[in-house]
Amino acid sequence: MEPSQAMFVKTKRHQLLVEKAGGFVEPFRQRAAKYDKDGLFPTENFHDLKRCGLTTLTVPEAYGGEEISLYEFLLVQETIARGDGATALSLGWHNGIMMQLRDTNKWSQAAFENLAREVVHDKLLINSAATEPSTGSPVRGGKPETSAVKQTDGWLINGKKTFTSLAPALDRIIITATITTDGKEEVGEFLLNRGTTGIRFEKTWDTLGMRSTRSDDLILDNVHVPEDAFVATKDTGHGRSPQGWLLHIPACYIGIALAARDNAIAFAKTYQPNSLSYPISEVPEVRRKTAEMDLELMKGRHFMYHVASVWDEFPERRPELGAELAAVKTVCTNAAVAVVDLAMRIVGGHSLQKTNALERYYRDIRAGLHNPPSDDITTMILANNAYQK
Fold first, then answer.
1. Which terminus of the chain has fewer Cβ atoms in its 10 Å neighbourhood, N or C?
2. Locate the Acyl-CoA dehydrogenase/oxidase N-terminal domain: which residues (predicted)?
């Protein structure tokens, strides 16, 4: 029996969400190899997700969404990732951005309501673009080299962003840019429409894993936007303030690891070399490796869902959860890497074949180590907490 999802499905609403997401696992799995091989964005998958309302899950009910909790968001992410990790990670960025905007109230109500209603009624997709070639991840505190200069009738934006996931499908993009206000430099957020003159994407995404997220470069060349495109000023704690929505990342990689685990067990139950009178599932070493996979998954999943529960049930404690959120990401992604490695050891040389999903899981799972926050950021947070006065 696989690690019981019933352990984490606690309500009827949870069950309905998991069943809804679960209906996509097999069709997404069937398409994943081609999307990965050709480095194509999973357009068909997102057509299905939009049709069934899975791109409006985190939008407030008042604007037509389902307003799911963080815990419920992770259940969906983990389930979708069993079918295709790249689709799940891409969906997570979109739904996660909407959850962040919903929970932080960082935009004006009018600006957020307008976007939320577009996401629901027009089935638009959104993501943020903050990483740049010279600054790296914004979590590390680098100031954007992208600039936004105030004009009499709006703003003029120039710059370049990297790792813009969902690039071929984005309708709206939130970008960060350095602005000057009263002689002081700040970081502003701007909401851009894809079709605006001067916005283009360069097809630069040719990677080892997560190939179909299509995280291409975004080029901003004399992009003129109206005054109301400026939606927020980033606070000085950006990258350090706890952001629960980012747990969609470890949930995705746990889902990939679960798929790898199931693949290895199915193989072990049926593979019987002529040197044995029974399938390799009876071999003690295979059973030991299987137990190790399940231990890693239990460790990561229980930790992740517990922290998500605290986030949902005790909003007043959210400012204190930065270390836990970072630790969940580190524990889960490293657990997922270990599980895929063990699964491949069980399957052996067959796992190296391009026709075997384990080969793709191995490549995709590596990307988790480079999603934010990286392990060194987590260890720095924990060490600083331990030694602070």
1. C
2. 11-100
